[in-house]
Design brief:
- Chain A: This is Formate dehydrogenase subunit gamma.
- Chain A: InterPro entries: NADP_DH_HndA-like (IPR028431), NuoE-like (IPR002023), NuoE_N (IPR041921), Thioredoxin-like_sf (IPR036249).
- Chain A: One of its GO terms (molecular function) is oxidoreductase activity.
- The complex is a heterodimer of chains A (about 150) and B (about 525).
- Chain A is of the alpha+beta class and about 150 residues long.
- Chain A folds into two domains: about 55 residues, Arc Repressor Mutant, subunit A (Orthogonal Bundle), CATH 1.10.10; about 80 residues, Glutaredoxin.
- Chain A contains seven helices and five strands.
- In chain A, a hairpin with a 5-residue loop joins strand 2 and strand 3.
- The longest helix of chain A is centred in the first third of the chain and has 12 residues.
- Chain A is elongated, with a radius of gyration of 18 Å.
- Chain B is an alpha/beta fold.
- Chain B folds into four domains: about 80 residues, Glutaredoxin (3-Layer(aba) Sandwich), CATH 3.40.30; about 200 residues, NADH-ubiquinone oxidoreductase 51kDa subunit (Rossmann fold, 3-Layer(aba) Sandwich), CATH 3.40.50; about 90 residues, Ubiquitin-like (UB roll), CATH 3.10.20; about 130 residues, de novo design (two linked rop proteins).
- In chain B, the strands form four sheets. Chain B has a five-stranded mixed beta sheet, covered by helices on one side. In chain B, strands 13-12-16-14-15 form a five-stranded mixed beta sheet. Chain B has a four-stranded parallel beta sheet with strand order 8-7-6-9, sandwiched between helices.
- In chain B, a hairpin with a 5-residue loop joins strand 12 and strand 13.
- In chain B, about 55% of the residues are buried.
- The chains are: A alpha+beta (about 150), B alpha/beta (about 525).
């Protein structure tokens, strides 16, 4: 991973403003930003470890632990609530066997809250492994469940 | 070969547009992927090119394509722009969205693209700034500050380089206009930024897009690549957010681009003078920048001629939540809230009565139907204790629990606070606690405890609380108002400062959900 970091920085530059793009790239490569990488990131961008740790923990997107094999992001914001989002959140947690904000014990599914996907007239909405799904009802939930079972 | 048009907008794809496009392609059609027209009740929509124009069918599914192509499908809509939803619109900013292939430079040029930039480059920077001032354009991101004044400050500011930053961190629930424009007409935003660059003397720009919009990120990156030569000497790049709502606040956004925690900066200095990397910076919302090509191409007067009071031009209104005909509706300021919700939106999708609408995202006020006469106008909404914000309207039917929505507003603020100022960081957490007490109390009125107010919290909950705390509902709502007052006046930015809007408007207009007596006018509404 240290080689990934040095290659990335050599290519994109070692200025402080590259921190977020680097963290995104790392997460895409590995799936999460491991705490053990913080010193290397800090050194490559000439930042303190506290600086890097502070940024990683500030943003909701960055994970410090691996996610499940499938990630279901369910919108919790007002527009989806207006269309029955809260009940769907409960149903999703039950159907997928994992609580909101957690990864299932077998590592198969992470269920995460998201605050608005910009699909506000056709909710409740989700992002299933990066693909948008609208108007989630019991049938849609069933399809999602079989998709993430694989 | 039959030419058909299917949207590639994230909402259309979420409703099955990709499978529809594949099915049409399998039938031998030439499929053009456009942005969305913005009426989601007919998505996925397919438009078939004919001698009479594009004939729409929607919603349709892959198994319907044979019936669509032979013209027998029952969901035939005729010419889409003739539908009532579109007939009343004034599309200045979204004129091309849903019509052109968003990544076709030829399509863009054929639909008046780059005319604004050409006109701007034939003028001096001051003339361009003057045109934007004369148009009356105000920041469409929520604050409503005059765009031309902001540009003038950057033009006059000493220092170089200067930057153009587009705030595409549209995190407000109920809003999706930025997303639709970036996915459906990305060159329009690029052109607007290039015009801004010419106007203030900037050479480089950033588009900060939230990570929740993967389609917009891909489309903008591709569009920047395609148009790079067209906008030289200006250069552009996309920066991707990382799931922090507060980065929609302009100074937090700047810190985030700089690679820091997205924390709010105290003002002054204004970003116009010391913005990104400490340099003079124009920071505008997507819709503000996307309005500029029209203004330069058609003239400031053409833009200013539409509108209401000091709110000039058009607003892309987003009808969201529990609404029958949800979508994007661009129209001049001045239309009433009720016309938008009921006439255009068709009321609640559930068929139940509309009880509340939230205008302007999670920091906007909730309004009851008795206030539907309000004209869509910055000043009128401010006077009524609300804000237009980014012009998202989220509709709720009568099943909504307004105390829970007030609690959610506080919870959202607590989750998303950047932590820099105490009223927002601590106040929101205390606000959730107060709301929990109110919600618990309104259901519990033990015999003999009526004197404690209309609700009582139960001794066990509060056995360790100092006796001075007034645990009646009246006491807790008084505490809530006091807390909101502190947050409103003591917070550094709109996140803590505006969270009182949804909380207090819910309490003022729907007190019965907080365990207090219902206002008299609710009864009158039910009779009407």
């Amino acid at each position: 991973m240290h080689e990934f970091i040095s290659t990335w920085v050599a290519r994109h530059g070692a200025t402080r403003d590259k921190l977020l793009p680097l963290l995104h790239a790392l997460q895409e490569e590995v799936g999460h930003v491991d705490d053990t990488l913080v010193p290397a990131i800090a050194e490559s961008l000439n930042l303190s470890r506290a600086d890097v740790h502070g940024v990683i923990t500030f943003y909701h997107d960055f994970r410090r632990q691996p996610a499940g094999r499938h990630v279901v992001k369910l919108c919790r914001a007002e527009s989806c609530q207006a269309r029955g989002g809260a009940a769907m959140e409960e149903a999703a947690a039950e159907r997928l066997g994992v609580r909101m904000g957690e990864t299932r014990g077998d590592g198969q599914i992470s269920l995460e809250p998201v605050y608005c996907l910009g699909l506000c007239a056709i909710g409740p909405n989700a992002l299933v492994d990066g693909r948008p799904v609208a108007r989630i009802d019991d049938a849609a939930l069933e399809r999602i469940a079989s998709q993430v079972a694989a | 070969m039959t030419r058909v048009f299917v949207s590639r907008d994230m909402a259309s794809v979420a409703l099955g547009a990709d499978a529809l496009a594949r099915a049409l392609s399998d039938m031998g059609c030439e499929v053009v992927r456009t942005g969305s027209r913005g009426l989601f009740s007919v998505e996925p929509l397919v438009e078939v090119e004919s001698e009479d124009g594009r004939i729409g069918y929607g919603p349709v599914q892959p198994e319907d394509v044979a019936a669509v192509l032979d013209g027998t499908h029952p969901n035939r809509l005729g010419r889409v722009e003739a539908l009532p939803f579109f007939a009343g619109q004034q599309r200045f900013t979204f004129a091309r969205c849903g019509i052109v292939d968003p990544l076709s430079m030829a399509d863009y040029a054929a639909h008046d693209g780059w005319k604004g930039l050409e006109a701007a480059r034939a003028q001096s920077p001051q003339q361009v700034v003057d045109a934007v001032k004369a148009s009356g354009l105000r920041g469409r991101g929520g604050a409503g500050f005059p765009t031309g004044i902001k540009w003038q400050t950057v033009l006059d500011a000493p220092g170089s380089p200067k930057y153009i930053v587009c705030n595409a961190d549209e995190g407000d629930s109920g809003t999706f206009a930025d997303r639709m424009l970036m996915e459906g007409d990305p060159f329009c935003l690029i052109e607007g930024m290039a015009i801004a660059a010419h106007a203030v003397g900037a050479t480089h720009g950033y588009i900060y897009i939230r990570s929740e919009y993967p389609f917009a990120i891909d489309t903008m990156r591709e569009a920047i690549g395609l148009s790079a030569e067209r906008i030289v000497p200006f250069t552009l790049e996309v920066r991707v957010g990382a799931g922090a709502y507060v980065c929609g606040e302009e100074t937090a956004l700047l810190d985030s681009i700089e690679g820091k925690r997205g924390q709010v900066r105290a003002k002054p200095p204004l970003p116009a003078l010391q913005g990104l990397f400490g340099k003079p910076t124009v920071i505008n919302n997507v819709l503000s920048l996307a309005a500029v090509p029209f203004i330069l191409a058609e003239g400031a007067d053409a833009y200013a001629a539409v509108g209401f009071g000091r709110s000039r031009g058009t607003m892309p209104v987003q009808l969201a939540g529990n609404v029958k005909h949800g979508g994007l509706y661009e129209i001049g300021f001045g239309i009433t809230l009720g016309a938008l919700v009921n006439d255009i939106g068709g009321g609640a999708a559930s068929g139940r009565p509309v009880r509340a609408v939230q205008v302007g995202g999670p920091l906007g006020a909730y309004f009851p139907p008795s206030m539907f006469h309000l004209p869509f106008d910055y000043e009128a909404f401010a006077q009524a204790g609300g804000l237009i914000g980014h012009a998202g309207i989220t509709v709720f039917d009568d099943s909504v629990d307004m105390a829970q929505m007030a609690r959610f507003a506080m919870e959202f603020c607590a989750v998303e606070s950047c932590g820099k100022c105490t009223p927002c960081r601590i106040g929101s957490t205390r606000g959730v606690e107060i709301m929990d007490r109110i919600v618990a109390a309104r259901h519990v009125t033990p015999v003999g405890m009526e004197q404690a107010g209309s609700g009582y919290l139960g001794e066990a909950l509060y056995s360790r609380a100092p006796s001075r705390i007034d645990i009646s509902i009246e006491g807790q709502t008084a505490l809530l108002r006091d807390l909101c007052d502190t947050m409103k006046h003591g917070s550094l930015c709109a996140l803590g400062g505006f969270t009182p809007y949804p909380v207090l408007s819910a309490l003022d207009h729907f007190p019965e959900d907080f365990g207090a007596p219902a206002p008299v006018r609710q009864a009158a509404e039910q009779d009407a």
